[in-house]
């Protein structure tokens, strides 16, 4: 497959400086791109790769236009990374693919489930009673959607996802556990993407809610009654415990954990591997982790941390005796 450079610009906009009839046969990073491929420069730290790149055409911002033109053809846009994303969408749309059945023969769909005629249901999927799947939504292979769960329009659910398994609810009784039946469901909005083997538990009483535009990576656990606001994105292996409320336009790095019954305001960014132990009421970038170190040094620092509260009290006593202003919190 090949697309003309001019076709890309006609379809997506931007200023082409070079040959409109140049055939683009693929997309590649700057350092590996060849003369028949399109690449992009989205961050100044990769500027050194631009001059030496063998790419036939490069997407750049106005800041790097002269440098890009000195090496060859380029497309100038305000946001090269966004433009590249749209190029990938256009590329996939124009790829010739075999027309597959909208519902794979091996899919198991309860008669009481509702699947929009334009939705695609992949091999080995299971849709239980009361499930509703919206228009143009795609379920890849082995997706399970449990009873009464709803998925909106234009969603993409990758292989192995489980939506609507029971939430983790048990009451202790005489040294054993009594199950709390999970009577809610899961409601997923429009334009949501869920990565492979991610699990979203159904609510205990109220529904677990994933709002429009949310993007979840692979191997994420979303507990029961969690609410996730519009256009929030989470990287792989994030865990969100039950009844947490996460605002809109948040980002949560890989391996981070949000404890149950906490709230995150809109626009909160959590660093990878952080553990969120308190609610966050204003937007910003938050980190909570112990820095990596060699084990012997880490053990010494960990031992010292255990003594911090006692040492602080001793310092306060000394400050009082010496009439030194106290250390602020």
Largest sheet: 9 strands, parallel
- Give the tally of structural domains: 3
Task: Report the uncertain regions.
Answer: none
What does the average pLDDT come to?
A: 95
CATH superfamily of the largest domain: Hexapeptide repeat proteins
Shape: flat
- As a percent range, the share of strand residues is 25-35%
Question: Would you tell me the structural class of the helices and strands?
Answer: alpha/beta
**What is Rg?**
26 Å
Helix content: 10-25%
What do we call the CATH topology of the largest domain? UDP N-Acetylglucosamine Acyltransferase, domain 1
In which order are the strands of the major sheet placed?
Answer: 8-11-14-17-22-25-28-31-34
Report on this model:
- This protein is an alpha/beta fold.
- It has 3 domains: 3-94, MurE/MurF, N-terminal domain (Udp-n-acetylmuramoylalanyl-d-glutamate--2,6- Diaminopimelate Ligase, Chain: A, domain 1); 108-286, UDP N-Acetylglucosamine Acyltransferase, domain 1, CATH 2.160.10; 295-329, no CATH class.
- The chain is 19% helix and 27% strand.
- The protein has a 9-stranded parallel sheet, with no helix packed on it. The chain has a 9-stranded parallel sheet with strand order 10-13-16-21-24-27-30-33-35, with no helix packed on it.
- Strand 6 (57-60), helix 3 (65-71) and strand 7 form a beta-alpha-beta unit.
- The longest helix is centred in the first third of the chain and has 15 residues, at 80-94.
- The chain is flat and about 80 Å long.
- The N and C termini lie far apart (62 Å).
- The mean pLDDT is 95.
């Amino acid at each position: 497959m090949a697309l003309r450079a001019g076709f890309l610009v006609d379809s997506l906009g931007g200023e082409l400086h070079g040959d409109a009839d140049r055939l683009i046969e693929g997309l590649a990073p700057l350092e590996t791109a060849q003369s028949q491929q399109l690449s992009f420069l989205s961050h100044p730290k990769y500027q050194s790769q631009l001059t030496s790149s063998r790419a036939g055409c490069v997407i750049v911002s106005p800041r790097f236009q002269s440098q890009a033109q000195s090496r060859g053809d380029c497309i100038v846009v305000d946001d090269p990374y966004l433009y590249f994303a749209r190029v990938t969408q256009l590329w996939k749309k124009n790829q010739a693919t075999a027309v597959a059945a909208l519902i794979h023969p091996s899919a198991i769909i309860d008669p009481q489930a509702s699947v929009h005629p334009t939705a695609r249901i992949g091999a080995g999927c299971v849709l239980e009673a009361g499930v509703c799947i919206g228009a143009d939504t795609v379920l890849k292979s082995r997706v399970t959607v449990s009873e009464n769960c709803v998925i909106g329009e234009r969603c993409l659910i990758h292989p192995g996802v489980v939506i609507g398994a029971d939430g983790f609810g048990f009451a202790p009784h005489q040294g054993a556990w009594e199950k709390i039946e999970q009577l809610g469901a899961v409601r997923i909005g429009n334009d949501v993407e869920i990565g492979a083997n991610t699990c979203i538990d159904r609510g205990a009483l109220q529904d677990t809610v994933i709002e429009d535009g949310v993007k979840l990576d692979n191997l994420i656990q979303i507990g029961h009654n969690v609410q996730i606001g519009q256009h929030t994105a989470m990287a792989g292996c994030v865990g969100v415990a039950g009844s947490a409320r996460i605002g809109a336009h948040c980002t949560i790095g890989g391996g981070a954990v949000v404890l149950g019954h906490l709230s995150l305001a809109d626009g909160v960014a959590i660093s990878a591997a952080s553990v969120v132990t308190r609610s966050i009421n204003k937007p910003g970038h938050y980190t909570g982790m112990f820095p990596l170190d060699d084990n012997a040094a880490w053990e010494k620092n960990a031992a010292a941390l255990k003594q911090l509260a006692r040492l602080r009290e001793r310092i306060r006593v000394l400050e009082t005796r010496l009439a030194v202003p106290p250390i602020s919190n």
